[in-house]
Specification:
Elements: E1 2-6, E2 14-20, E3 24-25, H1 27-35, H2 39-46, E4 56-60, E5 69-76, H3 83-97, E6 104-108, H4 114-127, E7 148-152, H5 156-181, H6 189-197, E8 205-209, H7 211-217, H8 220-226, E9 234-241, E10 251-261, H9 281-295, E11 301-311, E12 322-325, E13 331-334, H10 341-356, E14 361-365, H11 370-375, E15 380-384, H12 387-400, E16 404-406, E17 424-425, H13 434-443, E18 451-455, E19 461-462, E20 473-474, H14 479-489
Parallel strand pairs: 1-7, 2-5, 2-6, 6-7, 10-11, 10-14, 13-17, 14-18, 15-16
Antiparallel strand pairs: 2-3, 4-5, 8-9, 9-11, 12-13, 15-18, 19-20
The chain binds ligand BES, manganese (II) ion and zinc ion.
Protein backbone atom coordinates (compact mmCIF):
# COMPACT_ATOMS: atom_id res chain seq x y z
CA UNK A 1 0.00 0.00 0.00
CA UNK A 2 1.34 3.40 -0.97
CA UNK A 3 0.90 6.06 1.71
CA UNK A 4 1.06 9.76 0.82
CA UNK A 5 0.60 12.96 2.79
CA UNK A 6 -0.78 15.71 0.61
CA UNK A 7 -2.17 19.25 0.78
CA UNK A 8 -5.10 18.33 -1.47
CA UNK A 9 -6.58 15.03 -2.59
CA UNK A 10 -5.92 13.96 -6.15
CA UNK A 11 -8.95 14.38 -8.38
CA UNK A 12 -9.65 10.70 -8.91
CA UNK A 13 -9.55 9.79 -5.20
CA UNK A 14 -12.54 8.67 -3.18
CA UNK A 15 -12.63 11.11 -0.29
CA UNK A 16 -13.36 10.11 3.30
CA UNK A 17 -14.58 12.80 5.69
CA UNK A 18 -15.21 12.58 9.42
CA UNK A 19 -18.55 13.63 10.87
CA UNK A 20 -19.22 14.16 14.57
CA UNK A 21 -22.44 13.55 16.48
CA UNK A 22 -25.39 15.69 15.45
CA UNK A 23 -24.20 15.60 11.84
CA UNK A 24 -21.39 18.04 12.52
CA UNK A 25 -19.09 18.17 9.50
CA UNK A 26 -15.35 18.69 9.87
CA UNK A 27 -13.96 21.80 8.14
CA UNK A 28 -12.66 19.71 5.28
CA UNK A 29 -16.04 18.08 4.92
CA UNK A 30 -17.75 21.48 4.86
CA UNK A 31 -15.53 22.54 1.97
CA UNK A 32 -16.59 19.49 -0.03
CA UNK A 33 -20.20 20.12 0.92
CA UNK A 34 -20.01 23.64 -0.49
CA UNK A 35 -18.38 22.48 -3.71
CA UNK A 36 -21.13 19.97 -4.32
CA UNK A 37 -23.88 22.45 -3.56
CA UNK A 38 -24.81 20.97 -0.18
CA UNK A 39 -25.31 17.44 -1.51
CA UNK A 40 -23.23 15.98 1.33
CA UNK A 41 -25.19 17.65 4.12
CA UNK A 42 -28.47 16.79 2.37
CA UNK A 43 -27.47 13.12 2.12
CA UNK A 44 -26.43 13.11 5.75
CA UNK A 45 -29.50 15.00 6.91
CA UNK A 46 -31.93 12.75 5.09
CA UNK A 47 -31.45 9.44 6.85
CA UNK A 48 -30.27 7.75 9.99
CA UNK A 49 -26.66 8.81 9.67
CA UNK A 50 -26.01 11.13 12.60
CA UNK A 51 -22.23 10.94 12.92
CA UNK A 52 -22.38 8.29 15.62
CA UNK A 53 -19.26 6.16 15.97
CA UNK A 54 -19.15 3.36 13.43
CA UNK A 55 -21.66 4.82 10.97
CA UNK A 56 -20.78 5.24 7.31
CA UNK A 57 -22.57 6.86 4.42
CA UNK A 58 -21.55 6.77 0.79
CA UNK A 59 -22.33 9.63 -1.58
CA UNK A 60 -21.53 8.70 -5.16
CA UNK A 61 -20.62 11.03 -8.01
CA UNK A 62 -21.71 14.28 -6.39
CA UNK A 63 -21.94 17.15 -8.90
CA UNK A 64 -19.35 19.91 -8.56
CA UNK A 65 -16.46 17.85 -7.23
CA UNK A 66 -14.08 15.62 -9.12
CA UNK A 67 -14.09 12.89 -6.43
CA UNK A 68 -16.01 9.86 -7.74
CA UNK A 69 -17.45 9.35 -4.26
CA UNK A 70 -17.40 10.81 -0.79
CA UNK A 71 -17.69 8.55 2.21
CA UNK A 72 -18.76 10.06 5.54
CA UNK A 73 -17.50 8.29 8.65
CA UNK A 74 -19.13 8.91 12.03
CA UNK A 75 -16.72 9.60 14.88
CA UNK A 76 -19.19 10.33 17.70
CA UNK A 77 -18.94 13.03 20.33
CA UNK A 78 -16.28 15.73 20.06
CA UNK A 79 -14.92 15.18 23.56
CA UNK A 80 -14.63 11.44 23.01
CA UNK A 81 -12.56 11.88 19.84
CA UNK A 82 -9.23 10.34 20.81
CA UNK A 83 -6.53 8.48 18.87
CA UNK A 84 -8.40 5.19 19.04
CA UNK A 85 -11.67 6.62 17.72
CA UNK A 86 -9.73 8.26 14.92
CA UNK A 87 -7.89 5.02 14.11
CA UNK A 88 -11.08 2.98 14.00
CA UNK A 89 -12.70 5.60 11.76
CA UNK A 90 -9.77 5.70 9.35
CA UNK A 91 -9.71 1.90 9.20
CA UNK A 92 -13.41 1.94 8.52
CA UNK A 93 -12.96 4.45 5.72
CA UNK A 94 -10.64 1.99 4.04
CA UNK A 95 -13.00 -0.96 4.54
CA UNK A 96 -15.98 1.04 3.26
CA UNK A 97 -14.37 1.81 -0.10
CA UNK A 98 -11.87 -0.98 -0.68
CA UNK A 99 -14.04 -2.94 -3.11
CA UNK A 100 -15.58 -0.04 -5.05
CA UNK A 101 -13.04 -0.21 -7.86
CA UNK A 102 -11.18 3.07 -7.24
CA UNK A 103 -7.43 3.07 -6.75
CA UNK A 104 -6.99 5.95 -4.32
CA UNK A 105 -8.57 6.77 -0.98
CA UNK A 106 -7.99 10.28 0.35
CA UNK A 107 -8.68 10.76 4.05
CA UNK A 108 -9.59 14.38 4.74
CA UNK A 109 -7.63 15.25 7.90
CA UNK A 110 -6.75 18.87 7.24
CA UNK A 111 -8.26 20.13 10.48
CA UNK A 112 -6.46 17.51 12.57
CA UNK A 113 -2.90 17.67 13.95
CA UNK A 114 0.07 16.23 12.08
CA UNK A 115 0.17 13.44 14.63
CA UNK A 116 -3.48 12.59 14.08
CA UNK A 117 -3.02 12.67 10.30
CA UNK A 118 -0.19 10.17 10.73
CA UNK A 119 -2.39 7.95 12.90
CA UNK A 120 -5.09 7.96 10.22
CA UNK A 121 -2.57 6.65 7.69
CA UNK A 122 -1.31 4.05 10.18
CA UNK A 123 -4.84 2.80 10.83
CA UNK A 124 -5.88 2.66 7.18
CA UNK A 125 -2.74 0.69 6.43
CA UNK A 126 -3.43 -1.77 9.28
CA UNK A 127 -6.98 -2.22 7.96
CA UNK A 128 -5.65 -3.01 4.48
CA UNK A 129 -3.84 -6.19 5.59
CA UNK A 130 -4.53 -9.25 3.46
CA UNK A 131 -2.91 -12.67 3.24
CA UNK A 132 -3.75 -13.64 -0.32
CA UNK A 133 -0.59 -15.25 -1.63
CA UNK A 134 -2.28 -18.63 -2.07
CA UNK A 135 -5.41 -17.30 -3.78
CA UNK A 136 -4.78 -17.91 -7.45
CA UNK A 137 -8.30 -17.56 -8.78
CA UNK A 138 -9.89 -14.59 -7.01
CA UNK A 139 -11.97 -12.66 -9.55
CA UNK A 140 -10.77 -9.09 -10.01
CA UNK A 141 -13.97 -7.63 -8.56
CA UNK A 142 -13.44 -9.51 -5.28
CA UNK A 143 -10.00 -8.00 -4.76
CA UNK A 144 -9.54 -4.65 -3.02
CA UNK A 145 -8.83 -1.98 -5.62
CA UNK A 146 -7.21 0.67 -3.42
CA UNK A 147 -3.47 0.90 -3.97
CA UNK A 148 -2.81 4.37 -2.56
CA UNK A 149 -3.95 6.01 0.65
CA UNK A 150 -3.60 9.77 0.72
CA UNK A 151 -3.98 11.71 3.92
CA UNK A 152 -4.88 15.34 3.38
CA UNK A 153 -3.05 17.25 6.09
CA UNK A 154 -2.59 20.92 6.93
CA UNK A 155 1.14 20.31 7.28
CA UNK A 156 1.87 17.33 5.05
CA UNK A 157 5.62 17.40 5.82
CA UNK A 158 5.04 17.26 9.57
CA UNK A 159 2.46 14.48 9.16
CA UNK A 160 4.86 12.47 7.06
CA UNK A 161 7.56 12.83 9.72
CA UNK A 162 5.11 11.75 12.42
CA UNK A 163 4.21 8.73 10.31
CA UNK A 164 7.78 7.35 10.05
CA UNK A 165 7.82 5.49 13.40
CA UNK A 166 4.21 4.37 12.92
CA UNK A 167 5.14 2.94 9.55
CA UNK A 168 7.82 0.81 11.25
CA UNK A 169 5.24 -0.40 13.77
CA UNK A 170 2.83 -1.33 10.98
CA UNK A 171 5.68 -3.24 9.29
CA UNK A 172 6.13 -5.14 12.55
CA UNK A 173 2.42 -5.95 12.79
CA UNK A 174 2.40 -7.18 9.19
CA UNK A 175 5.51 -9.28 9.83
CA UNK A 176 3.68 -10.97 12.73
CA UNK A 177 0.45 -11.38 10.78
CA UNK A 178 2.27 -13.05 7.87
CA UNK A 179 3.98 -15.51 10.23
CA UNK A 180 0.72 -16.32 11.99
CA UNK A 181 -1.26 -16.75 8.75
CA UNK A 182 1.28 -19.02 7.10
CA UNK A 183 0.27 -22.69 7.14
CA UNK A 184 2.39 -25.10 9.17
CA UNK A 185 3.64 -27.06 6.15
CA UNK A 186 5.35 -23.86 5.03
CA UNK A 187 6.21 -22.26 8.38
CA UNK A 188 8.02 -24.82 10.54
CA UNK A 189 10.71 -23.90 13.07
CA UNK A 190 13.60 -23.56 10.62
CA UNK A 191 11.56 -21.45 8.21
CA UNK A 192 10.37 -19.22 11.06
CA UNK A 193 13.99 -18.78 12.17
CA UNK A 194 15.06 -17.99 8.61
CA UNK A 195 12.48 -15.22 8.38
CA UNK A 196 13.76 -13.78 11.67
CA UNK A 197 17.29 -13.90 10.29
CA UNK A 198 16.02 -11.76 7.41
CA UNK A 199 15.39 -8.97 9.91
CA UNK A 200 19.15 -8.48 10.31
CA UNK A 201 18.81 -5.97 7.48
CA UNK A 202 17.21 -3.65 10.06
CA UNK A 203 20.30 -3.78 12.27
CA UNK A 204 19.10 -6.56 14.57
CA UNK A 205 21.48 -9.30 15.67
CA UNK A 206 19.79 -12.67 15.17
CA UNK A 207 21.22 -15.92 16.51
CA UNK A 208 19.62 -19.27 15.78
CA UNK A 209 20.35 -22.20 18.09
CA UNK A 210 19.75 -25.71 16.77
CA UNK A 211 19.00 -28.91 18.65
CA UNK A 212 22.64 -29.76 19.39
CA UNK A 213 23.26 -26.34 20.96
CA UNK A 214 20.09 -26.53 23.01
CA UNK A 215 21.03 -30.03 24.12
CA UNK A 216 24.35 -28.68 25.38
CA UNK A 217 22.55 -25.96 27.31
CA UNK A 218 20.30 -28.58 28.91
CA UNK A 219 17.07 -27.39 27.31
CA UNK A 220 15.63 -30.89 27.53
CA UNK A 221 12.08 -29.78 28.13
CA UNK A 222 11.82 -27.64 25.02
CA UNK A 223 13.50 -30.38 23.00
CA UNK A 224 11.16 -33.05 24.41
CA UNK A 225 8.19 -31.27 22.83
CA UNK A 226 9.80 -31.44 19.39
CA UNK A 227 10.83 -35.09 19.60
CA UNK A 228 7.82 -36.43 17.74
CA UNK A 229 8.35 -34.07 14.83
CA UNK A 230 10.54 -34.59 11.78
CA UNK A 231 11.31 -30.85 11.94
CA UNK A 232 14.26 -29.55 13.91
CA UNK A 233 13.46 -27.40 16.96
CA UNK A 234 15.06 -23.95 17.06
CA UNK A 235 15.69 -21.13 19.49
CA UNK A 236 15.82 -17.65 17.99
CA UNK A 237 17.61 -14.93 19.92
CA UNK A 238 17.14 -11.42 18.52
CA UNK A 239 18.90 -8.38 19.93
CA UNK A 240 18.44 -4.68 19.36
CA UNK A 241 20.87 -2.39 21.17
CA UNK A 242 19.46 1.06 20.56
CA UNK A 243 20.25 2.65 23.94
CA UNK A 244 23.03 5.22 24.22
CA UNK A 245 24.83 2.72 26.45
CA UNK A 246 25.01 -0.49 24.41
CA UNK A 247 25.84 -2.42 27.58
CA UNK A 248 22.88 -1.14 29.58
CA UNK A 249 20.69 -3.86 31.08
CA UNK A 250 18.18 -4.99 28.43
CA UNK A 251 14.49 -5.70 28.64
CA UNK A 252 13.32 -9.05 27.28
CA UNK A 253 10.40 -10.54 25.38
CA UNK A 254 9.93 -14.28 25.10
CA UNK A 255 7.54 -16.06 22.73
CA UNK A 256 5.89 -19.46 22.44
CA UNK A 257 6.57 -20.59 18.90
CA UNK A 258 4.72 -23.87 18.48
CA UNK A 259 4.50 -23.93 14.69
CA UNK A 260 1.90 -26.66 14.87
CA UNK A 261 0.27 -28.10 17.97
CA UNK A 262 -1.38 -31.44 17.25
CA UNK A 263 -1.35 -32.10 20.99
CA UNK A 264 1.31 -34.79 20.55
CA UNK A 265 0.37 -38.25 21.85
CA UNK A 266 -2.33 -36.48 23.91
CA UNK A 267 -3.78 -35.80 20.46
CA UNK A 268 -6.30 -33.00 20.02
CA UNK A 269 -9.70 -33.75 18.46
CA UNK A 270 -9.82 -33.16 14.68
CA UNK A 271 -12.36 -30.41 15.16
CA UNK A 272 -10.56 -27.06 14.67
CA UNK A 273 -7.11 -28.65 14.94
CA UNK A 274 -6.16 -26.50 11.94
CA UNK A 275 -6.26 -23.48 14.25
CA UNK A 276 -3.09 -24.78 15.84
CA UNK A 277 -1.03 -23.45 12.94
CA UNK A 278 -1.27 -20.16 14.83
CA UNK A 279 0.07 -21.61 18.05
CA UNK A 280 3.24 -19.63 17.30
CA UNK A 281 1.34 -16.34 17.71
CA UNK A 282 3.34 -15.36 20.79
CA UNK A 283 6.65 -15.99 19.06
CA UNK A 284 5.30 -14.20 16.00
CA UNK A 285 4.48 -11.17 18.13
CA UNK A 286 8.00 -11.11 19.59
CA UNK A 287 9.49 -11.21 16.08
CA UNK A 288 7.15 -8.43 14.87
CA UNK A 289 7.91 -6.34 17.95
CA UNK A 290 11.65 -6.61 17.33
CA UNK A 291 11.01 -5.65 13.70
CA UNK A 292 9.06 -2.57 14.84
CA UNK A 293 11.61 -1.50 17.46
CA UNK A 294 14.56 -1.85 15.09
CA UNK A 295 12.59 -0.24 12.26
CA UNK A 296 11.97 2.89 14.28
CA UNK A 297 15.40 2.77 15.93
CA UNK A 298 14.03 2.63 19.47
CA UNK A 299 16.43 3.99 22.09
CA UNK A 300 16.48 0.88 24.21
CA UNK A 301 18.32 -2.43 24.55
CA UNK A 302 15.93 -5.31 23.89
CA UNK A 303 16.22 -9.06 23.64
CA UNK A 304 13.62 -11.25 21.90
CA UNK A 305 13.76 -15.00 22.47
CA UNK A 306 11.49 -17.42 20.61
CA UNK A 307 11.22 -21.16 21.32
CA UNK A 308 10.29 -22.90 18.07
CA UNK A 309 8.99 -26.47 17.94
CA UNK A 310 6.39 -28.62 16.26
CA UNK A 311 4.30 -30.80 18.61
CA UNK A 312 3.55 -34.09 16.83
CA UNK A 313 2.71 -37.71 17.76
CA UNK A 314 5.25 -40.26 16.60
CA UNK A 315 7.36 -43.19 17.79
CA UNK A 316 9.91 -40.71 19.09
CA UNK A 317 7.37 -38.43 20.72
CA UNK A 318 7.41 -37.84 24.45
CA UNK A 319 4.84 -39.84 26.39
CA UNK A 320 2.35 -38.85 29.08
CA UNK A 321 4.08 -39.75 32.34
CA UNK A 322 7.59 -38.93 31.12
CA UNK A 323 9.79 -36.97 33.51
CA UNK A 324 12.13 -34.42 31.92
CA UNK A 325 14.84 -32.21 33.37
CA UNK A 326 14.56 -28.52 32.52
CA UNK A 327 17.48 -26.19 31.93
CA UNK A 328 16.82 -24.79 35.42
CA UNK A 329 17.48 -28.24 36.91
CA UNK A 330 13.88 -28.61 38.08
CA UNK A 331 12.19 -31.80 36.92
CA UNK A 332 8.79 -31.91 35.20
CA UNK A 333 6.28 -34.73 35.00
CA UNK A 334 4.61 -34.46 31.59
CA UNK A 335 1.07 -35.62 32.23
CA UNK A 336 -0.40 -34.21 29.06
CA UNK A 337 1.72 -33.69 25.96
CA UNK A 338 -0.82 -31.08 24.81
CA UNK A 339 0.30 -28.76 27.63
CA UNK A 340 3.45 -28.18 25.61
CA UNK A 341 3.66 -24.39 25.49
CA UNK A 342 4.70 -24.16 29.13
CA UNK A 343 7.41 -26.77 28.50
CA UNK A 344 8.86 -24.67 25.68
CA UNK A 345 8.64 -21.48 27.73
CA UNK A 346 10.15 -23.06 30.87
CA UNK A 347 13.48 -23.41 29.11
CA UNK A 348 13.16 -20.21 27.03
CA UNK A 349 12.42 -18.09 30.13
CA UNK A 350 15.20 -19.69 32.15
CA UNK A 351 17.68 -19.21 29.31
CA UNK A 352 16.67 -15.56 28.87
CA UNK A 353 17.11 -14.54 32.50
CA UNK A 354 20.26 -16.63 32.89
CA UNK A 355 22.03 -15.21 29.86
CA UNK A 356 20.78 -11.63 29.68
CA UNK A 357 19.91 -10.68 33.29
CA UNK A 358 17.11 -8.45 31.95
CA UNK A 359 15.24 -5.70 33.83
CA UNK A 360 12.11 -7.72 33.17
CA UNK A 361 10.74 -10.44 30.93
CA UNK A 362 7.37 -10.40 29.20
CA UNK A 363 6.31 -13.64 27.57
CA UNK A 364 3.54 -14.01 25.00
CA UNK A 365 1.87 -17.34 24.36
CA UNK A 366 -1.29 -18.87 22.97
CA UNK A 367 -1.06 -20.93 26.12
CA UNK A 368 -4.49 -22.15 27.20
CA UNK A 369 -7.97 -22.75 25.84
CA UNK A 370 -9.12 -21.92 29.36
CA UNK A 371 -8.17 -18.29 28.74
CA UNK A 372 -11.01 -18.11 26.20
CA UNK A 373 -13.39 -19.61 28.73
CA UNK A 374 -12.36 -17.00 31.30
CA UNK A 375 -12.21 -13.87 29.14
CA UNK A 376 -13.99 -14.61 25.87
CA UNK A 377 -12.34 -14.01 22.53
CA UNK A 378 -11.50 -10.30 22.63
CA UNK A 379 -9.33 -9.95 25.75
CA UNK A 380 -5.94 -11.41 26.62
CA UNK A 381 -4.94 -12.29 30.17
CA UNK A 382 -1.91 -10.80 31.91
CA UNK A 383 -0.27 -12.50 34.89
CA UNK A 384 2.63 -10.85 36.68
CA UNK A 385 4.81 -11.08 39.75
CA UNK A 386 5.31 -7.29 39.54
CA UNK A 387 2.53 -4.78 40.13
CA UNK A 388 4.59 -2.09 38.44
CA UNK A 389 5.09 -4.10 35.26
CA UNK A 390 1.44 -5.17 35.25
CA UNK A 391 0.29 -1.57 35.65
CA UNK A 392 2.56 -0.40 32.85
CA UNK A 393 1.17 -3.13 30.60
CA UNK A 394 -2.42 -2.23 31.48
CA UNK A 395 -1.70 1.45 30.73
CA UNK A 396 -0.20 0.53 27.34
CA UNK A 397 -3.22 -1.66 26.69
CA UNK A 398 -5.60 1.19 27.37
CA UNK A 399 -3.65 3.58 25.15
CA UNK A 400 -3.46 1.20 22.19
CA UNK A 401 -6.80 -0.57 22.37
CA UNK A 402 -5.30 -4.06 22.60
CA UNK A 403 -7.36 -5.36 25.55
CA UNK A 404 -5.70 -6.96 28.57
CA UNK A 405 -7.17 -8.08 31.88
CA UNK A 406 -5.04 -8.88 34.92
CA UNK A 407 -5.35 -12.39 36.33
CA UNK A 408 -4.14 -13.67 39.71
CA UNK A 409 -1.18 -15.89 40.65
CA UNK A 410 -2.44 -17.24 43.99
CA UNK A 411 0.21 -19.00 46.08
CA UNK A 412 -2.41 -21.39 47.42
CA UNK A 413 -2.93 -22.78 43.90
CA UNK A 414 0.71 -23.85 43.65
CA UNK A 415 -0.33 -27.27 44.90
CA UNK A 416 -2.32 -27.77 41.69
CA UNK A 417 0.99 -28.28 39.89
CA UNK A 418 2.81 -30.33 42.52
CA UNK A 419 3.75 -33.79 41.29
CA UNK A 420 4.34 -36.91 43.38
CA UNK A 421 7.26 -37.97 41.19
CA UNK A 422 8.90 -34.71 40.02
CA UNK A 423 9.30 -31.08 41.13
CA UNK A 424 6.31 -29.96 39.08
CA UNK A 425 3.70 -31.36 36.69
CA UNK A 426 2.53 -29.77 33.47
CA UNK A 427 -1.21 -29.87 34.12
CA UNK A 428 -3.37 -28.48 36.90
CA UNK A 429 -6.54 -29.59 38.60
CA UNK A 430 -8.84 -30.81 35.83
CA UNK A 431 -10.42 -27.85 34.07
CA UNK A 432 -10.31 -25.56 37.10
CA UNK A 433 -8.32 -22.35 36.64
CA UNK A 434 -6.39 -23.84 33.74
CA UNK A 435 -4.85 -20.52 32.69
CA UNK A 436 -3.75 -19.82 36.24
CA UNK A 437 -2.03 -23.15 36.80
CA UNK A 438 -0.25 -22.67 33.46
CA UNK A 439 0.96 -19.22 34.54
CA UNK A 440 2.06 -20.56 37.93
CA UNK A 441 4.06 -23.19 36.05
CA UNK A 442 5.87 -20.50 34.05
CA UNK A 443 6.53 -18.45 37.16
CA UNK A 444 8.69 -21.25 38.54
CA UNK A 445 11.13 -20.65 35.67
CA UNK A 446 11.52 -16.89 36.08
CA UNK A 447 14.03 -17.09 38.93
CA UNK A 448 12.34 -14.14 40.64
CA UNK A 449 13.01 -11.69 37.80
CA UNK A 450 10.15 -9.18 37.26
CA UNK A 451 8.00 -10.98 34.72
CA UNK A 452 4.64 -10.83 33.02
CA UNK A 453 2.91 -13.51 31.01
CA UNK A 454 0.38 -12.60 28.32
CA UNK A 455 -1.94 -15.49 27.47
CA UNK A 456 -3.00 -14.40 24.00
CA UNK A 457 -4.92 -17.57 23.05
CA UNK A 458 -8.15 -15.50 22.87
CA UNK A 459 -6.84 -12.80 20.56
CA UNK A 460 -4.11 -14.11 18.27
CA UNK A 461 -6.61 -14.91 15.51
CA UNK A 462 -9.81 -12.92 14.82
CA UNK A 463 -12.90 -14.62 13.47
CA UNK A 464 -15.53 -11.87 13.48
CA UNK A 465 -13.61 -8.71 14.05
CA UNK A 466 -15.42 -5.56 15.08
CA UNK A 467 -12.20 -3.54 15.00
CA UNK A 468 -11.49 -2.07 11.57
CA UNK A 469 -7.72 -2.00 12.04
CA UNK A 470 -7.71 -5.75 12.81
CA UNK A 471 -9.34 -7.56 9.90
CA UNK A 472 -10.38 -11.21 10.35
CA UNK A 473 -7.38 -13.53 10.41
CA UNK A 474 -4.04 -13.06 12.15
CA UNK A 475 -4.32 -10.11 14.53
CA UNK A 476 -0.69 -9.38 15.28
CA UNK A 477 -1.82 -8.84 18.85
CA UNK A 478 0.89 -7.55 21.16
CA UNK A 479 3.13 -5.68 18.75
CA UNK A 480 1.46 -2.28 19.09
CA UNK A 481 0.84 -2.79 22.81
CA UNK A 482 4.42 -3.73 23.68
CA UNK A 483 5.91 -1.13 21.38
CA UNK A 484 3.91 1.41 23.41
CA UNK A 485 5.10 -0.08 26.70
CA UNK A 486 8.69 0.35 25.51
CA UNK A 487 8.14 3.85 24.11
CA UNK A 488 6.32 5.18 27.17
CA UNK A 489 8.41 3.58 29.92
CA UNK A 490 11.79 2.34 28.77
CA UNK A 491 13.17 4.66 26.13
CA UNK A 492 15.59 7.26 27.39
N1 LIG B 1 -2.15 -24.16 22.13
C1 LIG B 1 -3.04 -24.71 23.10
C2 LIG B 1 -3.98 -23.65 23.69
C3 LIG B 1 -4.96 -23.02 22.74
C4 LIG B 1 -6.23 -23.55 22.60
C5 LIG B 1 -4.65 -21.87 22.05
C6 LIG B 1 -7.14 -22.94 21.76
C7 LIG B 1 -5.55 -21.27 21.22
C8 LIG B 1 -6.80 -21.80 21.07
C9 LIG B 1 -2.24 -25.32 24.25
O1 LIG B 1 -1.02 -25.87 23.89
C10 LIG B 1 -3.06 -26.40 24.82
O2 LIG B 1 -3.31 -27.35 24.14
N2 LIG B 1 -3.46 -26.25 26.08
C11 LIG B 1 -4.26 -27.21 26.73
C12 LIG B 1 -3.71 -27.41 28.12
C13 LIG B 1 -4.29 -28.61 28.84
C14 LIG B 1 -3.89 -29.88 28.15
C15 LIG B 1 -3.79 -28.58 30.26
C16 LIG B 1 -5.69 -26.68 26.76
O3 LIG B 1 -5.87 -25.46 26.84
O4 LIG B 1 -6.59 -27.48 26.63
MN1 LIG C 1 -1.23 -27.91 23.29
ZN1 LIG D 1 -0.14 -25.14 22.21
Amino acid sequence: MKIEFVGAASGSAVVAVFVQDERKLSKGAQAYDQQCGGALSRAIGAGRFTGAKGQTLLLTAPAGVSAPAIVAIGVGAKDGFDDLVLEHAAGQAYSAVKLLGFDTLAIEASDLSADQAARAAFAARLASYRFDKYLTKTPADKKPSITTIQVVAADAKAAEAAYAPLSAIADGVFFTRDLVAEPANVLYPEEFAKRCKGLEKLGLTVEVLGEAEMEKLGMRTLLAVGMGSTKQSQLVVMRWNGAADKNAQPIAFVGKGVCFDSGGLSLKPADAMEDMKWDMGGGGAVAGLMCALAGRKAKVNVVGVIGLVENMPDGNAQRPGDVVVTMSGQTVEVLNTDAEGRLVLADALWYTQDRFKPKFMVDLATLTGAMLIALGDEIAGVFSNSDELADNLLAASKATGEPLWRMPLPASYERMIDSPIADIKNTGKGRLGGSISAALFLQRFTNGVPWAHLDIAPVAWRKDSKVSTVPDGPAGFGVILLDRLVADRYEA
